[in-house]
Amino acid sequence: MKKIWGLLIALMLLLPGMVKAEEADDMPQVVDDGLVKVYMFEAGGCPYCEQELAYLQSLESYGTKFTVVSKELYVDHNTWAQGEDYELGQEVAKAFNAAGFTQAKANGTPMIIISDVYASTGYDDNLEEVIDLAYQEGDKDVVSCIANGGKECIAAVEQKKLTVVGAAVLIGSVVVVFGIIICIYLYTDNKNKKAK
Predict the structure, then answer these.
(1) What one-character DSSP code corresponds to residue 139?
(2) pLDDT at residue 30, rounded to an integer
(3) Residue 112: its pLDDT value, please?
């Protein structure tokens, strides 16, 4: 019986490593500074960008859980001349759109990107829970990954769901196998006791 418990404990310790191995190598790794980077692609003088920044800076977790990184998508909101980060903004929006985040558009401001969990254009004052989620999961700096030439910086929303389903199936399979092993052991142990 001690051998079975030892085997169970060993498998439970190895299980997180087996699930983690399913992650793609190209995916951005968790940034180790502890703060989530909330990217705001903006246009100079954009009133919605100013409101978004004020909202973000008013959150209690500003500076302790997250920081705001401003990117110049457009020089100003009147002429819509392309800013220094215009090409990056286009690439980021395209990558997030391909991953299923259809609200990310680089033709308006502000475009907000949070790790690999949020991408949308327009003022949003409901970001605290999203920031908390990114903080708990560890910031995956998708924008930096794309800026550095990464090709597979964000998984499709469906792919993320499949990874979770795959992990659940793996865990369920391990539990079933161990249940069968324990039943067989108990059956043979009980049979041996009756034979004595």
Answers:
(1) -
(2) 42
(3) 97
Whether this model's pTM surpasses 0.70: no
Residues of the chain with pLDDT under 50: 8, 17-31, 158-165
3-state SS track over the chain: CHHHHHHHHHHHHHHHHHHHCCCCCCCCCECCCCCEEEEEEEECCCHHHHHHHHHHHHCCCECCCEEEEEEEEECCCCCCCECCCHHHHHHHHHHHHHCCCCCCCCCCCCEEEECCCEEEECCCCCCHHHHHHHHHHCCECHHHHHHCCCCCCCCCHHHHHHHHHHHHHHHHHHHHHHHHHHHHHHHHHHHHHHHC
Question: What are the tens digits of pLDDT across the range 25-43?
Answer: 444 444 456 899 999 999 9
